[in-house]
Amino acid sequence: MSAQLKPLVWQPTMEYASNYEKVPFKVYTQRDLDRIEPLVRLSDEQRFEMKVVSTVLPFRVNQYMIDELIDWRNIPADPIFQLTFPQRGMLKPEHFDRVATLIRDGAGKVELDAAVNEIRLELNPHPADQMEMNMPRDEAGNRLDGIQHKYRETVLFFPSQGQTCHSYCTFCFRWAQFVGDKDLRIASSEAESLHAYLQAHPEVTDLLVTGGDPMVMKAKHLAGYLEPLLRPEFDHIQTIRIGTKALTFWPHRFLGADDADDLIRLLERLVEAGKQVAVMAHYNHWKELDTEAAQAAIRRVRGTGAVIRAQGPLIAHINDDPAVWARMWKLQVKLGIVPYYMFVERDTGARHYFEVPLVRAWQIYREAMQQVSGLARTARGPSMSASPGKVEIQGVTEVAGEKVLALRFIQGRNPDWVQRPFFAKYDEQASWLNHLVPAFGEERWFWQDEYDAIRNEKVSVAKN
Ligand code: SF4
């Protein structure tokens, strides 16, 4: 080896948590609605509406969001207020009236809980067949809780200590995990079962640790899952992705928090050992990137050698505007973040309030793309994480005189479907894959028979 070609040694970041202010984490849930000071400017009726909605759907917000991100002169329209605080329209009128009446009449806990549970089950708590189709089984046929394996290369892991977030998004597609119903949770605390599963599956290259938000965990717990992956038997795991909204909801987690240094060192060790570490940051609005703490946290995470990739859904009342996306993508690139995905809001929870029709979603995507330079054009979308796979809306066009939506699989249950264009009849109202029908008078999608067979098999195994 020549003198100049020394082995590459990762330089640890020289910043320490002690350089940052230690900000206490203060959180509010439904019980504390009356203690959130800025809400006094709302009417009693508005506060009651929040109470009704948050009886059914999870609510959690922290002081940082209240103080630094919400513009209280602009409520209820403020996008971050819409992102975190319950809105009346999130419940269908019949559901809202049922719960409001029970609360007004002073119904007992048992009666109220029963009504709430019935409503929750009507809100499609597990979209895209997660429970039946993505949960792998061990050799004895037992379901491996906390693991999802939908696409060949990628395993999702839900550590049980990470099944909450520093705040909750009103539109959360994983809301069912936060409402305290054990049957609705997907979680595991068993590092061994994760490691055994990964060891038995050499085709897996990517591990996505997700939640909730794994960054709510103590660094030592996260390390318990991730550090063993540095052993040679896990060489096939090239990429560790960590899904998080902590860079928005609680950037102090990476700055002055007690174990912030441990977390930063953990990321550094993984990078140094040759793993690709991707922090999959959930962003919905440029405002989330626009505080001092948010930008300091981004710098500190990037200093570890991890790459931050940004993704998030397109949501009515929050970011259904090309200018918001263009400004967000530009700011992400400026801060060294890679724009990755624009998602379509999933068919669960308060979707009727937040959904944006697919044609409109594509128009927003296109107009936003037209305003940014090449480095921000890395965002794919709008994309639906549907049961057959991730389906991107590529555009509206005309083929043989018929107006159609052009679609493609970005990921598919069968890898052979990936990148094959297919066409749906033009429909301005459709907001999810199951609202679309094939174009050109065809009766079935090209993937339909194969998907039905896969589904039948998985569902019958799940039932047994
Ligand atoms: S960060 Fe993700 S999991 Fe957490 S509340 Fe928001 S959408 Fe749900």
From TrEMBL:
One of its GO terms (molecular function) is 4 iron, 4 sulfur cluster binding. The keyword S-adenosyl-L-methionine applies. CDD domains: Radical_SAM (cd01335). Its cofactor is pyridoxal 5'-phosphate; [4Fe-4S] cluster. Gene3D superfamilies: Aldolase class I. The keyword Transit peptide does not apply. Keywords: 4Fe-4S, Iron, Iron-sulfur, Metal-binding, Pyridoxal phosphate, S-adenosyl-L-methionine. Belongs to the radical SAM superfamily. KamA family. This is Lysine 2,3-aminomutase. It comes from Azoarcus taiwanensis. The lineage of its organism: Bacteria, Pseudomonadati, Pseudomonadota, Betaproteobacteria, Rhodocyclales.
